[in-house]
Amino acid sequence: MILPFATRTVIIYSLGIDYLGLDTLFSSILNVLSLSELGFSSAIVFSMYKPIAEGDDEKVCALLTYYKKIYRIVGCIILGIGLILLPNIQLFIAEGTKYPSDVNLYVVYLIFLSNTCISYFLFAYRSSILVATMRTDIDAIIELVRCIVQYGLQLLVIVLFKQYYIYILVLPFVTVAINIFRNLLIINKYPEYCKNVTLEKEEKKQIFSKVKALIGNKIGGMVFTTADNIVISAFLGLEVLGKFSNYNLIFTTVYAIESVAYTSIQPVIGNLLVTKSREECYSIFQKLFLINTCITAVCTACFVSLYQPFMSVWVGKEGMLSTVIPMLFAVYFMVKSIRRLLFLFKEAAGMWKDDFWKPYVSVLVNLIVNIVLVQIIGLPGILISSIVAILVVEIPWETYVFFKKFFEKSPKQYAFLFALAILFSGIVALICGIVAYFTCKIVAYPVLRIAVLFIVCLLLGIGSCIPLLLKSSWKADINNIKKQT
């Protein structure tokens, strides 16, 4: 978080916001192209668990050899489509809007394209061994080293040379170095998995069947973020995209930090779903939902109160967007965060096939509303489309699938819980927002203002949640007493 944040700050003040927009646009385009991988990594890793546990080294080698071939094919697809897009790359930037005049768009795009393809043609497929052997800690350390080296070099280049070309050339060089380093480390640690073995046809069919179940979720997750950026650039320009990406960085960082806790409890939830009765699982779901609502309320309150004051200090008035945008980000966060627990339970239950078509419908709704609204109301339409897709498609679909098929209860029960959670989080955020408004008028110093607002939001948010938690605990105790008597 710190190094990307520092790099963005230096780019904004040394080169300009347009360069950030260019970075975000090309990264988004290539992320869409990377969808050709379509969940093969997850399917391969899942297929490795059993042979690794049984000590079947030959089977693991066969899976890795097949995975290497898949990655080479994916790399060729990305390179081919990427080169086809090259002559028309300027179409992704809104006509009549400015972009950095001292860079060649085609050269910059080719550097980004080469950086994306390198991993597919080198040894990225070997990282699946670390995941399958549950040594993601090693991969996390390698990724940390990559971030430190990449952002450290990029910061140095910007400060010393103020040269965008050198700045982006750091990307492919670091990618090559890290891939070679990871490969040597894995070969040294797992020499038994370095043979070339052919995978049987039946195994390939099983992998493809798993990919079919995973493809939708991968597309849904990726398109929601990348499509927004491409639409903003195509209709509003790089400058607006650069500003939007700064706001989005704060949003994604907070959401990612919150996600760490939820990801860590997914195996526990998976175990509960298998070992406990449906009624016990539902009781646990309700308790976790209450805790999740309280966390969401506090975070949403912080978004409403702190977004603009923080952006003012970080990027200055020139880099800020209208107050509508952070308010919509707060609503978007609230909806995504409250929905997260249901999604987590559904994933832990392995119910991917039950809502197979949901991601496709959601993406389609998001894109259509996106393109229509951005032309009518501008940037707010981007966030509204994402909120609409979640509220109209994803939550109703997931609720029906999980409550009807797993809990065997009416989806209306969750709809009622969700509405109460939205109402509670909204009221807490509104109160904090009103307090923030008057605090901004009283406290003159911007940094002190942020500190005061943060403390106020925490106190008000947590203070609002305590009675709710206590009341829930009291009701649970009464119910337990009634059952015992």
Can you offer a commentary on this structure?
By secondary structure, the protein is mainly α. The protein folds into 2 domains: 2-213, no CATH class; 237-484, no CATH class. The chain has 16 helices and no strands. Helix 11 runs antiparallel to helix 12 (324-348). The chain is globular, with a radius of gyration of 24 Å.
Outline of the structure:
With 485 residues, this protein is mostly helical. Helix content is 83%, strand content 0%. The longest helix is centred in the last third of the chain and has 39 residues.
What does the secondary structure layout of this molecule look like, with pairings?
Layout: H1 2-14, H2 17-33, H3 40-54, H4 57-85, H5 105-121, H6 127-132, H7 136-161, H8 164-189, H9 201-236, H10 238-275, H11 278-315, H12 324-348, H13 358-376, H14 380-407, H15 411-442, H16 446-484
Helix pairs in contact: 1-2, 1-7, 2-9, 2-10, 3-4, 3-9, 4-5, 5-8, 7-8, 9-10, 9-13, 10-11, 10-12, 11-12, 11-15, 11-16, 12-14, 12-15, 13-14, 15-16
- Helix percentage range: over 70%
Please give the alpha-carbon distance between the first and last residues.
53 Å
Average pLDDT works out at 86
Reading the helices and strands in chain order gives HHHHHHHHHHHHHHHH
Could you say how many structural domains there are in total? 2
Helix/strand class: mainly alpha
Low-confidence stretches: 480-485
> Which overall shape is indicated by the principal axes computed on the Cα atoms?
globular
Count of helices?
16
Radius of gyration: 24 Å
